[in-house]
Amino acid sequence: MIQIEYEVLGSMLLDETIHPYLDNLQEDDFTDIFCKRCLLAMKDLRTKEKDITIFNIQEISGLKLIDLVNVQKTIATTALAESNIKTLKELSNRRQLLKKAEAIKDLVKDKDKTIAEIKNDIIQQIDGIQELGSDEIVTLKDGLFLAYEELEKRYQNKGDTSLYTGLTKLDSATAGLHREELTTIAARPGVGKTIIGLQIALNIANKGTKVMYTSLEMSITQLCERIISGGSDIDSHKLRTGNIANENEWATIQRTISRFQKENLLIDRSSTNIQHIRTKLRKYKPELLIIDYLQLLQPTNKEYSREREVAVITRDLKRMTQEFNIPIVILAQLNRNADGARPTLADLRESGAIEQDSDNVIFLHEPKDKEITELISSGKMPREYFDYLKSNQFSFSYIIIEKQRNGPTGTIKAIKKPKYMKFEEAD
Questions:
Q1: pLDDT tens digit string along 17-34?
Q2: 45, 81, 152, 211 — which has fewest CB within 10 A?
Q3: What percent of the chain is helix, strand and coil (3-state, nearest 5)?
């Protein structure tokens, strides 16, 4: 074990192209005291952008020069450097797992913690073990080759709409949802976050893509009633009150249920925090995750301020898009300041981290009387159009692409049909 520690450090002294691996190595990855001190000196020199030489290491660590020379002599070539570093990291991770296994025993004995809290703590401890992947360092040459491969794949699958939302103009602007991207759909309460979230989930699941919809607000029955209403065009209030008029409506409901009996749309009502969700992703392996909604997720560390909690959650969600290679959509609330006014990124509730970590931010906005009056008086919309919407209990809405990291922003006109639990794009 100590031999490989010396070989890794010897490689660092011989080949500066291996120095970026120092960012992945920690003091605990080494068992020998001399190697620990040598590593810390190397990391210090790298931070200060100084040359990693035996003389500079000796100067800041106090280690004997002869010992450092012997380290440098342990290997004749750095050809196996990457393999040795991976082996060293694996040995370190196994030691850490053994330590954490002992810590888990103590956690289980803690009667002040619930089983859910113990499970969260265990998952957090295990997730904290850093693995060294084979693609930690990529040359520009290799990166460009990977990008070209991805472009070829997209060209071959350019007709693939499996992750399209079903809203034509939105999909035209965004090319659907994308793997490894975090999308936030935000609005004030009652504007239609859950409606559009379920609509996207159902549309994508209907194409055969496995979707997990994590609901922190509504029961399974409530969500399924909304799906039935949207699929059958039967007023959701009728379903809620049981006032179903005739046999034709019953037949329509039964056909809708038969059409939507999809095993690939998973409704998750038990996850309350990020660790719960991570466990479900590992178990069920969905190709899309939608969370309804962000501010109801509980923190795993209750000592943080709420703003800090949300920042930690959004950063974890962004990492999960990459870890599981899936798109994640989070529904989120806007600040009260956004009530009635056209929302901006500054209105994202409780944290600027939502804007920072999200690849895409989409707002739902329902214009109030003043804004509608301006649209009519300016001639942009006829009054009869709004009278028609109002008489049918529909609402004129905007779907606003406020941020798109890899595409254009813009505004899409839409009609919200709350009694049928759906959005439709307006002509």
A1: 888 888 888 888 899 999
A2: 152
A3: 55, 15, 30
Question: What pTM did the predictor assign?
Answer: 0.67
Mean pLDDT of all residues in 175-187: 92
Report residue 110 as tokens. 């803690």
Query: The dihedral of CA 294, 300, 305, 309: what is its sign?
Result: negative
**At which residue do the structure tokens 């549309």 appear?**
203
CB atoms within 10 A of CB 314: 26
- The whole-angstrom separation of Cα 287 and Cα 296 is 23
Count of CB atoms within 10 A of residue 116's CB?
14
Residue 358's Cβ-count burial label (10 Å; 0-12, 13-18, 19+) is buried
What is the distance between the alpha carbons of residues 79 and 7, in angstroms, rounded to a whole number? 11
Coil, helix or strand at residue 292: strand
Distance from CA of residue 20 to its chain's centroid? 27
Task: Give burial (CB, 10 Å; 0-12/13-18/19+) of 286.
Answer: buried
77-126 pLDDT tens trace: 777 888 888 888 888 888 888 887 877 777 777 777 777 667 766 766 66
Burial 49-60 (b: 16+ CB within 10 A, else e): eeebebebbbee
